[in-house]
Specification:
Length: about 200
């Protein structure tokens, strides 16, 4: 059975960081949360992955980030794992599969893998064992109403039922939003290009 993974990241941010492309002093896109779902051939969720990550360079979350994501400093301090552990576990979840994101989250993933290695940390799984694909251009092409919408709002703009609990800018909720969008588009006859899976 062919399965594939959808993933989303939440990473450190500050007011205006997006517009500056994280070019301000000390602004690194350190992963704070990884969410992923493995979908089966019918695009139903077969398995979930979620973890909080403790940032290294900016261990204190900005109020802006907390307001955006709902992730509190106490949660990360209590439940967060070291970046190398989180990245290893996530890459193991993805191994041997196509891994789709709504945007270039694989770039941020690559940055964090590089920083972990530069600190001398060992990753148990390679990100080369998975195939990462940005599915946003395809979705925006087949459903133009999604062009200005972030991943957590896809379900809403496509008129789908809310995909469970959680909120926009929570990595796992955003994955479920993306899954709902893909299921809907599939029901309308749009199919993911062969090269994606």
């Amino acid at each position: 059975m062919t399965t594939f993974v959808l993933f989303d990241l939440e990473f450190t941010s500050w007011p205006g960081a997006l517009e500056r492309d994280w070019s301000g002093p000390g602004e690194l896109r350190e992963i704070v949360q990884i969410g992923a779902v493995r979908l089966d051939e019918e695009y139903a969720v077969a398995e979930e992955f979620e973890t909080l990550v403790r940032p290294v360079v900016n261990p204190r979350l900005s109020p802006y980030f907390t307001e955006l994501t709902g992730i509190e400093q106490e949660q990360v301090d209590r439940e967060g794992v070291a970046p190398a552990r989180a990245l290893s576990d996530f890459l193991g979840f993805c191994a041997g599969r196509s891994v789709l994101s709504y945007g270039n989250d694989m770039v941020v993933l690559g940055e964090n893998v590089g920083w972990a290695r530069a600190r001398g940390e060992t990753l148990e799984h390679s990100w080369l064992a998975a195939r990462f694909v940005n599915v946003r251009p395809w979705i925006n092409h087949v459903a133009p109403t999604t062009a200005d919408v972030n991943v957590g709002r896809l379900w809403k703009v496509l008129g789908r039922p809310r995909p469970g609990s959680g909120q926009e800018h929570s990595a796992l909720f955003d994955c479920h939003s993306l899954a709902a969008a893909l299921r809907y588009l599939r029901s309308t006859g749009a199919t993911l290009p062969d090269g994606f899976l």
